[in-house]
Design goal:
The complex is a heterotrimer.
Chain A: H1 11-36, E1 39-42, E2 47-50, H2 54-61, H3 63-94, H4 101-109, H5 116-126, H6 133-140, H7 157-182, H8 187-195, H9 199-210, H10 212-227, H11 231-236, H12 248-258, H13 262-286
Antiparallel strand pairs in A: 1-2
Chain B: H1 6-34, H2 38-41, H3 56-62, H4 86-116, H5 122-131, H6 137-151, H7 157-182, H8 185-193, H9 198-209, H10 211-227, H11 230-235, H12 243-247, E1 251-252, E2 255-256, H13 258-278, H14 280-286
Chain C: H1 3-18, H2 24-33, H3 38-41, H4 50-53, H5 64-73, E1 81-87, H6 90-107, E2 110-116, H7 118-131, E3 138-142, H8 146-149, H9 156-162, H10 178-185, E4 186-187, E5 190-191, E6 194-197, E7 201-206, H11 207-213, H12 221-235, H13 251-263, H14 280-293, H15 305-313, E8 319-323, H16 327-330, E9 342-345, E10 368-369, E11 373-377, H17 384-395, H18 397-408, H19 421-424, H20 437-446, E12 448-449, H21 457-473, H22 480-497
Helix pairs in contact in C: 1-2, 5-6, 6-18, 13-14, 13-21, 21-22
Classes of the chains: A mainly alpha, B mainly alpha, C alpha/beta.
Protein name (chain C): ABC transporter substrate-binding protein
Main location (chain C): periplasm
Keywords (chain C): Periplasm
Chain lengths: ~290, ~290, ~500
């Protein structure tokens, strides 16, 4: 048997295509962004000019950025928490073989095939202050006054956006949790039944610990995406009213594409990446996720 | 499982149906928009159940006549030549299918090694793979644009397929690795004793065992490619466009063509839904993320 | 029947027939009563082709002379592919869906048009310029970008002079409305393409409601407010006197603001290039706007022009002082509840008006805010000559007539198009009507307001100003003065940074 580097017995050949792709498309862009963050596109001369640490200095001093970071973190925390709890609840609910539950599980996955940009438009219509169904229902229930449109009131706009995220991605959590629930070993449950444990005790003492890794990975995958969320705010609120739904990703998109400040846009992106890296690794460490 | 009374089973069914239908409601509503005329889309109070359905929106975006008496087209369509939507659906399908194929293949190969072979820094390698998903898309889009410009990959299927495959790799690797982890190492080892090569064991024995998991992974990759917006927007021009990007063209200077947009959205849901149906049973069984092995 | 009535009626029945509201038998009966004769439409034919649809007798086909010229001059360029990224506007849609094929057939070239929402067009254009890629042979340039791309496009006057053999006979640059050349195409002393389309603020109101209330189209801004207030009080809570496009952080909010600002004798900049929206006139405008807002549906702060247009189209608001482009849409009976009920008028007179010399950066105060765009050949294009041929064709007299008549109903940028019989024949009630165009023409000549030209304008008009105005309407400032001072500070900082 050959034991060369390119042998099937060594990992390298298996990992080669993956590594090549990732290096080409993520290491290069990363280096490029780092380089870019020390330059700025000059609209008049049409060239990138060296600006030293100016972009980073601007970042630290930029009140708008800190506000966007706060909004992003708030959005991230609420949306993720709701998706995990609601996702788990629905997964437990659907983890049964009653008639029609297979259909329900399929129906639920439908929200995932809607492109987020279109989902944003859908909810823009549903939450329209004048013609929206949700507005109408809330109004009839006396929960909403017409003078406070959901997406145009500073205190409610972010909830209006979160609603889409929760609507679209809770089923994703359900899917993953359901798969986890279905693969749990039956023995602990049989033992618990003999002990006459309550449903809640069973969930807390058996299901939750067994599902720990599934939940951790789901939180990680979804958390990363929520942090980078762009489509919903872009389509629904443009960050408004005022700056109340201005997330980091929207801010860096705008700097990059609308104002052609590629250097500052890259700096913002790198900063976002840095925060995700820190939060994610903290989480991996705390939740003791081992690959 | 515990024995439950009939009333609690009924209650559970009712709650389950209620919850899922609540989630399905926006989709239903969007579907009604696709079948409404402009003036019925914007109505106070909103019309949810009763409206006079029309197929006009579908006729307009596909440039066809469905023979319900709406043979004529508007003189100028709101989306500017947007009645040629069929090719855009095709673009979406080609890109989603091929990028999914590439992502799942590469991830399967890599995950097998990550699951079976010990090497220094393996844990870090997986973390690194995951971290590539953390990059904000905006930060990837511009450099990739310039790389593609040099490689003449702008506005090509290859270009979009590659970037979509890439975007899905971290998730695919994580999922596939968890499926391999679920298969006991003894199976490989017994094969090795028989003198079969690693690759042969992988192909003949292990691969068939992760088929379900691969299908579940494929669904997720397909969905993420199907719905991706920013890369397609930045890396294509007139040659191809996927559904999410092309739907934004219904946002015009004289208002948004809601009916047409909804019709396209509804039409685009169909292929993706069929794909899900095909692998449905793997989807719920498959996404276990290695829960059994702690 | 008077001749003009006959013409109107004829256009209407043809329209009804084409839209399937009139069966063939009744149509032929009505047509023969008008002396149209079945022969005109051919007894055996099914339905007239869409291109005939919008008007009665005058055929809407490109002129043979123009196509002959295209054919002749394009010979060396056959097989060329031209690309253009454009916002989804009526002219672009008309060209893309109806007219492009004639050009392609005559020239042997292929024209690929990428239709996108406005902000995405800017993104495409910017990347193309920065990378010098030359993907797009032609640029669609919103007036607010003119300053930043002026050096990346050819000045059409130079192209005309340098390539006499490629110049279209009778193209006539002088036909473009001078106000539009000034407001849209010109940056410093260069032409950044030629004016391509012209959405402009006009007063659009519900004739039926105004009649019922005994109102006439408002003469002054104050009268407009009084009418809007009366309508809201009389017919509320499901009918409002006015409406707006006031979505925070969106360009449309800035557009509304400028109209009120200019209408109260204010300006965005002073001659020494400082922001002046916080001066006395600017605050008077804010005070007026606050009052007027109480007559708008509460949802206005969530709407761009789409929601604004819908509020009128679906009978929620009785008036809108906004884009005239919406007028032809309001008349579409399939899409709206107000077909035939709308009337167009000039905007109310401004309280005071600054002159151009009292403002900065070439800003032109006027209540008729214009949001036009120009079409130009990119300097990065690999086939600038072929693109120039297309551009002349797309903006020539004949093509503009077709664009306007084929249901776009958009305001033409050429003076003579307004007088074309095919445009006049389209003044019937129905989708794509042109019955508002006299108002548009007069507004361009007398009321037009135009935003300043400076490279930072894209950022100021899409972010700095509308985000803070959005904050103001969300109640995050204690007073209009505070909001305006904040905008002033932020704007001056961006402007002075260069």
């Amino acid at each position: 048997m050959r034991v060369g580097v390119l042998s099937w017995d060594r990992p390298w050949i298996w990992l080669l295509p993956l590594t090549a792709m990732l290096v080409a498309f993520t290491i290069m862009p990363l280096l490029y962004n780092i380089w870019l963050s020390f330059h700025e596109y000059h609209t008049f001369s049409r060239e990138l000019r060296w600006v030293g640490g100016a972009n980073w200095a601007q970042l630290v001093a930029d009140a708008r950025m800190w506000e966007a970071l706060g909004i992003t973190l708030f959005y991230f925390a609420v949306t993720l928490t709701v998706q995990v709890i609601l996702g788990m609840a629905i997964a437990l609910l659907l983890d049964d073989d009653e008639i029609g539950f297979g259909f329900l599980r399929t129906l639920l996955t439908l929200t995932l095939v809607v492109p987020p940009a279109i989902a944003g438009m859908m909810f823009l219509l549903i939450e329209d202050p004048e013609f929206g169904v949700l507005t109408y229902v809330l109004e009839q229930l006396g929960l909403l006054d017409k003078t406070t449109p959901i997406l145009a009131t500073a205190s409610t706009a972010i909830w209006g956006v979160m609603l889409v995220d929760i609507w679209q991605w809770t089923p994703f959590m359900v899917l993953i949790f359901l798969a986890g629930l279905r693969s749990l070993p039956p023995e602990p449950y049989e033992a618990a039944m003999l002990d006459g444990a309550s449903a809640f005790t069973v969930f807390r003492r058996i299901t939750l610990p067994l599902m720990q890794k599934v939940i951790a990975v789901a939180v990680l995958i979804r958390g990363i995406d929520i942090f980078r969320m762009f489509d919903y705010v872009f389509v629904m609120t443009s960050g408004g009213p005022g700056t109340s739904t201005y997330t980091l990703s929207l801010y860096s998109w705008q700097q990059t594409f609308s104002f052609i400040k590629w250097g500052y846009g890259a700096t913002l992106s790198l900063f976002t990446l840095l925060i995700i890296l820190i939060v994610a690794n903290l989480f991996i460490w705390v939740a003791k996720v081992r690959w | 499982m515990m024995v439950r009374s009939k009333s609690s089973r009924v209650l559970r069914s009712v709650v389950a149906w209620g919850t899922v239908l609540l989630f399905a409601f926006p989709l239903y509503y969007w579907l009604t928009v696709a079948f409404k005329d402009g003036k019925e889309i914007f109505n106070y109070p909103p019309q949810v159940w009763s409206f006079s359905p029309t197929v006009r929106n579908f006729e307009e975006i596909f440039g066809i006549s469905l023979g319900f008496g709406f043979g004529e087209q508007r003189e100028v369509l709101p989306g500017g030549g947007n009645w040629r939507m069929a090719p855009r659906l095709w673009d979406s399908i080609v890109i989603a299918v091929l990028s999914t194929g590439i992502a799942v293949s590469i991830a399967t190969l890599a995950s097998y090694a990550l699951s079976r072979m010990e090497f220094a820094g393996r844990h870090h390698f997986v973390s690194w793979v995951l971290s590539t998903r953390m990059m904000p898309p905006v930060a990837v889009a511009i450099p990739v644009f310039f790389i593609y410009k040099e490689l003449s990959l702008l506005d090509t299927y290859t270009g979009v397929i590659l970037i979509h495959a890439l975007m899905n790799l971290p998730l695919a690797v994580l999922l596939m690795k968890s499926f391999f982890d679920d298969i006991p190492h003894e199976i490989d080892e017994s094969g090795m004793i028989d003198g079969a090569s690693r690759f042969l064991i992988f192909r003949r024995i292990i691969l068939p065992m992760v088929k379900g998991g691969a299908a579940a992974t494929a669904v997720l990759c397909f969905i993420f490619s199907w719905t991706e917006f920013l890369f397609v927007l930045t890396l294509t021009q007139t040659g191809l466009k996927t559904v999410p990007v092309v739907s934004s063209t219904f946002v015009t200077s004289t208002g948004t063509a809601w009916g047409n947009m909804a019709a396209l959205g509804a039409a685009a849901m169909l292929p993706a839904f069929l794909f899900i149906l095909l692998v449905q049973k793997h989807l719920v069984r498959g996404l276990t993320l290695g829960s059994v092995k702690q | 029947m008077r001749d003009s009535d006959r013409k109107f009626y004829r256009a209407k029945i043809v329209d009804d027939y084409v839209r399937g509201r009139l069966d063939r038998r009744s149509f032929l009966k009505a047509a023969s009563a008008l002396g149209l004769g079945a022969g005109l439409f051919g007894t055996g034919m099914a339905r007239p082709r869409p291109s005939f649809a919008a008007s009665g007798t005058p055929t809407l086909e490109p002129s043979a002379d123009v196509l002959a010229w295209v054919k002749e001059v394009s010979k060396p360029f056959a097989g060329t592919t031209l690309r253009l990224a454009t916002e989804s506007t009526p002219p672009s849609n008309a060209i893309n869906s109806q007219l492009k094929k004639y050009f392609e057939e005559a020239s042997g070239m292929t024209v690929e048009i990428e239709v996108l929402p406005l902000e995405q067009v800017l993104q495409k254009l910017t990347l193309d310029i920065a990378s010098q890629l030359g993907t797009y042979d032609l640029y669609y340039i919103d007036q607010s970008w003119a300053a930043s791309v002026s050096r990346d496009v050819f000045d059409p006057r130079e192209q005309m002079a340098e390539k006499p053999d490629l110049a279209m006979p009778d193209y006539n640059m002088d036909d473009f409305l001078p106000a539009l050349v000034d407001g849209i195409a010109k940056y410093e002393d260069r032409w950044v393409g030629v004016p391509y389309d012209i959405p402009i603020f006009i007063m659009q109101y519900r004739k039926d409601i105004y009649d019922k209330m005994g109102f006439k189209a408002p003469e002054t801004l104050e009268e407009y407010y009084e009418q809007a207030k009366a309508i809201t009080e009389e017919m509320g809570p499901n009918m409002f006197g006015s409406t707006g496009q006031m979505k925070s952080g969106h360009y449309s909010l800035e557009c509304d603001w400028t109209a009120w600002l200019w209408g109260h004798g204010g300006s965005i900049f002073t001659p020494d290039r400082k922001f002046s929206g916080n001066d006395e006139a600017g605050l008077a405008a804010m005070e007026y706007w606050d009052r007027l807002k109480t007559t708008m549906p509460p949802g206005v702060t969530g709407w761009t022009w789409d929601g604004q247009g819908q509020s009128v189209a679906q009978g929620v608001a009785a008036t809108m002082m906004s884009w005239g482009e919406f007028f032809p849409y309001f008349d579409d009976p399939n899409a709206t509840k107000v077909s035939g009920l709308m009337e167009a008028a000039r905007c109310p007179k401004p309280k005071a008006l600054r002159t151009v010399s009292e403002t900065g950066f070439g800003e032109i105060p006027g209540v008729g805010h214009q949001g036009g765009s120009s079409l130009a050949v990119s300097r990065n294009s690999k086939a600038p000559d072929a693109a120039w041929i297309f551009m002349q064709w797309a903006t020539c007299y004949d093509t503009q007539v077709l664009i306007t008549a084929l249901g776009g109903g958009t305001g033409p940028t050429r003076e003579s198009v307004y007088d074309d019989e095919r445009i006049i024949a389209n003044r019937r009630v129905g989708a794509g009507t042109t019955r508002h165009l006299d108002v548009v023409r007069e507004t361009i000549a007398k009321d037009m307001g135009s935003e300043p030209d400076l490279p930072q304008w894209a950022e100021l008009s899409n972010d700095t100003i509308p985000v803070r105005l959005g904050k103001y309407f969300a109640g995050e400032y204690s007073s209009a003065k505070e909001a305006m001072d904040d905008i002033a500070q932020a704007t001056d900082k961006i402007v002075s940074a260069g």
